[in-house]
Amino acid sequence: MCTAQRVLSPADIGTTKVTAIELKVLSKLFDSAPGAAFFVKDVEGRYVAVNDSLVKRHGFKSKSDVIGKQPRDICQGEFGQVPTRQDEKVLRTGRPLIEHLEMQWHRPRNPVWCLTTKLPLHDAEGKVIGLVGFSHDVRVSIPTGEIPTAYAMALDEFERTLAPEVTPAWLAQQSQLSTTQLARFTRRVFDLTPTQLIAKIRIAAASRLLRDTQKPVVVISLDCGFSDHSAFTRAFRRATGVTPSVFRKQR
């Protein structure tokens, strides 16, 4: 696998010109993965390389229809603004986005749930010059009418805040669903109960903080919405098999 420095030079990124053979190989490789959208973007968040899946799921016919544009240019509304804001944060901070659970459009009125990863690209001096990433479908496409926008927005708010008051009842209310509808829908999309999904999101956020920061475990537990350090440790051990401290040492 090529390194970030070999994929694109600062000049290539700045002008959205793709000249590296390795980049074309990666793009071709991901063309054979219809369940994943692959992309490379410049320092302004504009596409410089994509695979066929990304093009098709947005309703376009050619990669040239996407190159040079930002997500907000090819997908209207919040579903175009969210990835654009993600890109801006990765490019500004240099911190990756790892397996972020989100809903995206497919062809372009068929929403799918995806796990998205975005990694910053650096030049030889360590300056962020772009990003590379992919989104892979959690499950197959589901008819639009079966995925309420309120549900997507509630999950997005929860993932951003990790508020301790978020429970299945809160999620149902924010999603404008009954608790039975919420349970049925969450099981179909994620193969999880609402309680399991909430726990998964909290643990995923905690694991990223344990891996990427030096915050004390007790602070991480509160940041991720756990009532106290003991509750966090019990939940984390159930999900990962180890305590938060052991997980941090193993990173």
UniProtKB/TrEMBL annotation:
| SUPFAM superfamilies reported in the protein's UniProt record | Homeodomain-like, PYP-like sensor domain (PAS domain)
Q: Which Pfam families match?
A: HTH_18, PAS_4
Q: What domain of life? A: Bacteria
Q: Which residues form the HTH araC/xylS-type domain?
A: 152-250
A GO MF annotation of the entry reads: DNA-binding transcription factor activity
Q: Which UniProt keywords apply?
A: DNA-binding, Transcription, Transcription regulation
UniProt KW Transcription regulation keyword? yes
Entry protein name = HTH-type transcriptional regulator CdhR
